[in-house]
Design brief:
The structure is a homodimer. By secondary structure, chain A is an alpha+beta fold. Chain A is built from 18 helices and 22 strands.
Chain lengths: 647, 647
């Protein structure tokens, strides 16, 4: 087991003023959180009702109503509460805090005397609870409650929600576990594992960690709990006849015997994130090493260049190594977020830029693409290539939308993105008592105790649009600690100065570890060379053969029809083309665009098949925009991978 | 309306000795017909029973049994009977003829007093007949019976089967039609239209032609019969909520208002073939012209280079113009055959190589690929690119098999291929009293009355493996007539001599019309230049952008892993590569193979994404085999389209 990083930094201690994320977090604050609160209260005209608040009011016996929505409807509320709580740390809002408090009270009133909370079973038949762990999401909802309660505690210091969460966790521990007479089960949709570890870390109660560990080690053990439960209860099993089976749930065999990511991509990464948290807190090195091998399989064989995962709509699932179709990608916003959670938990075990590079890739590209500029419409699916007509006419693309949607019946992605952006500072660094590692160059100011001394940090610059990062370090008194600065994997060369003097350091596991006694006013300047880069996929990725993508810094670019006309498949990128880099504060919320001269292929368009060879002979101006802001200018074609002229 | 071609040539009058088709027809005779007879009689150990014969025996009241199989199970038997009858014309077999006769007797015994025949309803509930024209295939089965009965009549001269067919057709005409009190319906799966026209042509009974015409003109008229039937009978409607709706059946609007091929590709082409037959027999020029526009839409926008159609597994259907995915192609063997039937019927209206080129393309490539060398295993789906592992792991490819299967629960394709190959000579030419047009250069000997004189023809050569075709014309006495020789669309130049003297003729609608007084022993020699050709798809075909296919004469080639190793997507074909052409009598039943030097792309295989450009730098020998013999050497990768090195 590597050294681990016990500390994260509360949102209130990191004031973010970032050229990339501030706009996104403002959209969450101004639009996503308020809009979703209205939705949860069924007050959005024209939208399908959520029923989430009403379900709780009915469960509390305050109104008469049947349960409405999915079995996991409660989780929409918990994720909103988590986002709202995180936001309070950096954007105090007494009115929001009051609503949050009232919601905690409502949940407490709905909680059963034994601690159980789940409006679906409370409002249908409580005697049926815990009879379908495979599909009915009680533990999934509980996990989201735990995460929300911990965030609420961190934000307000009040334990009201934590008490509800602990009471539920204690109830779960009384029903499930290794002891005789308990159910030897685990959740069909993982999430409670990470929630339990966070609850353990907030309360110090080892029972919660132990339960999380049980869920992870029990999962997939013979005899399979889900098979027995299905037979015993006569439950249906949707994936029975398909190629996935119990692998859909990562429950076909024990995690330690699973050699590559399988099944539903969100569930898989929630499992891995929870398992990494357990490995860290229990010092389980074998588990960590296994997760490390799954990490490599996932991020080196099944991850899109946008950091997204889940190649297939069928089962919203992983398929097989190097299968990365662009147009039919599932690449659910939640799956990318789940991979970020996994990366974050791995980073808390070992600071290694292999984790942070993926964390950065997915947070700057394939997740934030899930939201429009204003935070009022959302993608569930994040394809890497879209032809709008094809999404309507090709049933294989029925899941792909060419424009963002207002809301979803299954509203998992928008609040998931909201809670992640609201708690973004948690992901930016890891710390011990005398070391801090900067994973994300999130501009702003934060304070951290190091060597027993409060130390202020101010990061400034235009990252990710420019590679120069200035960091002012302000210890309250001189103090020695290690400050590790990540050199991103995309960066071909860098310069580092301290108070104007070059520091000659080589990265270790991708970090420049500056170990010194810091004095107030010390200033670091890290200059990351940030050229426009052509990126090619591994030769085994069939879908990208003969194609090239364009990246600059952590930002993956795409071509849109709005800039480049239709038939993007006819465009080739010469290897010799020079790029112009222009920051456009006016465009798409402020982005850097790339321009170059491409080639448009002419061909015989008089016949379906012709012996006349096409020629890439027409120079055309190309404009690349960052992938994450695609589809903000109406409906049109888009592609990340374009044809490589190989000359 | 163009001039039409009333005559086709019975199989007995065309002795085929062809370098391409003789082997295939022998396989049909030796293996497909006998094997299928055993299958129809439930005598194949280990195979799922067919039940087809048993159903008829039960329907005749000779055994007690429930109906077994699909609602269209009878059609398997009728298609087998048609294939067997055709084969008797060129390969007399008293034992087979006896079995066929006994089967006709069995069907006659199962026929109801009012003429009705359909074992599904006879064995379930006869009062329910004609209540689900949309899905229950009574008319489809009837159509196959009519085709079989006509073939039986042509083969044996006996009218036993024809009488059964006429009695059924008369019954149908009493139930369906424009008159008040009749059902104003039409079949969900077209086929009866062509069957009725053939029955009309065999019997001269105009009622059958009239009924076929009614089915075609009534189809899709408001109020929609299928919508009314579905509501009236409470029938299910599988396609209701999808993008296809009644277009699945080509029944969403009248045929004359349908501007492109839609829905189930087999049904669509059966409809068009039937409509073309009606247009020819009724002189309906407007209908012909509309079919001509559908023909262009289909063959110039939605046809694979193998002649196949039906891009999507969903609905086994057409999608939209230029959507021609290679790996997930449906391209059902039956759909290609249906397109051949459509081409054939169009050729009987107008001799135009636009039709014959497609007929040739589909008969030499995407249909005969449906059968292995021996005629003992079959493809339903004929993809243009296969990676075996992907067909198992990617649910979008669940319909694609990397090796041919022994039989299918839905056994439509093998007998369809058998009946087409058995009656191949019908497709080879069209004739009037004083003209004959050679569409397919099917080597062998045939006799035809022209200008009142029997004229013998002998075609010899190695076509399609070589471009020289020698034709000896032997009229019993000198006689003047036109002999039209098709110049295939793929042919860049040709030479034609008559008795050694060059004839300088230009093709009209793709045919060299030789109008002369022919004397015994006249000899034509047509030399079609047959270079190896690179073929590129229309620039709107996204799936083939940057790719090239290889064709020689009518034969489309492919790369197989067996010859070229795995990872075919890493191979590029230089535009400058010279091909070696070698006929290999020993290989795959005797085929011409092509060889050249290709390039294998190397790339950075240490990372999923890399800034190191791949290079097409390793020359490798490439071997191309004809597409139709792929997957005869075990499981492996295959591709028709490969990467175009563009240099």
């Amino acid at each position: 087991m590597q050294n681990t990083f016990p500390h994260s930094i509360p949102g209130r201690d990191y004031r973010v003023e970032d050229p990339f994320f501030t706009r996104l977090r403002t959209a969450v604050l101004r639009n996503v959180i308020p809009y979703q609160w209205e939705a949860l209260n069924d007050r959005v005209p024209g939208a399908a009702p959520s029923g989430a608040i009403r379900n709780f009011r009915a469960a509390a016996g305050e109104i008469q109503a049947e349960h409405y929505g999915y079995v996991f409807q409660d989780s929409d509320l918990f994720k909103w509460m988590e986002a709202a709580a995180h936001s309070l740390m950096w954007a105090p809002d007494p009115h929001l805090e009051q609503e949050l408090e009232a919601t905690v009270d409502l949940i407490a009133r709905a909680q059963q005397p034994d601690g159980y909370v789940d409006t679906y079973y409370i409002l249908t038949d409580l005697s049926k609870r815990w009879t379908n762990l495979k599909d009915n999401h009680e533990l999934y909802c509980a996990g989201h409650m735990f995460e929300a309660a911990v965030a609420h505690f961190r934000a307000t210091g009040r334990t009201t929600f934590l008490q509800v969460a602990e009471k539920l966790a204690d109830h779960i521990a009384s029903v499930l576990g290794p002891e005789e007479g308990k159910l030897h089960g685990y959740p069909g949709h993982e999430e409670v594992e990470l929630g339990l570890v966070k609850l353990f870390e907030a309360t110090g109660c080892a029972r919660y960690l132990e339960l999380a560990r049980y869920f992870i080690t029990q999962r997939g053990r013979e005899p399979l709990y889900f098979a027995e439960e299905t037979a015993r209860q006569g439950n249906s099993f949707f994936w029975k006849d398909g190629p996935l089976g119990y692998a859909y749930y990562q429950a076909h065999k024990p995690l330690l015997e699973q050699d590559r990511p399988v099944g539903h991509a969100v569930r898989a990464n929630y499992l891995y994130a929870g398992a990494a948290a357990v490995a860290r807190c229990t010092g389980d090195d074998a588990l960590y090493r296994h997760l490390e091998s799954l990490w490599r399989e996932e991020t080196q064989k099944q991850m899109y260049i946008t950091g997204q995962v889940g190649s297939s709509e069928y089962g919203e699932a992983f398929t097989y190594p190097y299968d990365l179709p662009n147009d039919s990608a599932y690449a659910e916003t939640c799956a990318g977020l789940a991979l970020a959670f996994f990366a974050h938990q791995m980073l808390r075990i070992r600071r290694d830029s292999a984790y942070a590079d993926v964390l950065e890739r997915v947070l700057y590209n394939g997740t934030v693409s899930g939201m429009d500029l204003e935070g009022t419409s959302f993608f569930y699916v994040n394809p890497l290539s879209v032809v709008p007509a094809a999404t309507r006419e090709d049933q294989r693309l029925a899941h792909v939308k060419p424009v963002r949607q207002k809301w979803f019946g299954c509203a998992c992605c928008p609040p998931n993105l909201a809670r992640t952006l609201a708690s973004l500072t948690d992901y930016a660094l890891s710390a011990t008592d005398n070391a801090v590692y900067q994973h994300l160059y999130l501009a702003g100011t934060f304070t951290l105790p190091l060597g027993g001394v409060p130390v202020g940090f101010t990061l400034s610059g235009q990252y990710p649009w420019a590679g120069e990062i200035r960091i002012r370090v302000e210890p309250h008194a001189p103090v020695r600690f290690t400050y590790g600065l990540r050199v991103p994997g995309w960066c071909p060369s860098f310069r580092l100065t301290c108070n104007g003097q070059p520091l000659s350091l080589s990265p270790t596991q991708g970090y420049l570890d500056i170990d010194r006694t810091w004095a107030p006013g010390d200033e670091l300047c890290l200059t990351l060379e940030m050229p426009v880069q052509r990126v090619w996929a591994h030769p085994s990725v069939r879908e990208d053969a003969g194609k090239v993508a364009v990246q600059r810094g952590p930002i993956v670019y795409c071509l849109e029809e709005a800039d480049n006309g239709p038939d993007l498949h006819r465009i080739l990128l010469p290897r010799t083309a020079d790029f112009t880099v222009t920051h456009r504060p006016d465009l798409l919320g402020g982005v850097t665009v790339l321009a170059c001269t491409g080639l448009r292929e002419s061909g015989d368009d008089t016949a379906l098949y012709s012996t006349r060879p096409p020629q890439a002979d027409t120079p055309i101006p190309l404009t690349f925009i960052p992938y994450f802001v695609w589809a903000n200018r109406g409906e049109g074609e888009m592609t990340v991978w374009l044809r490589d002229a190989r000359s």
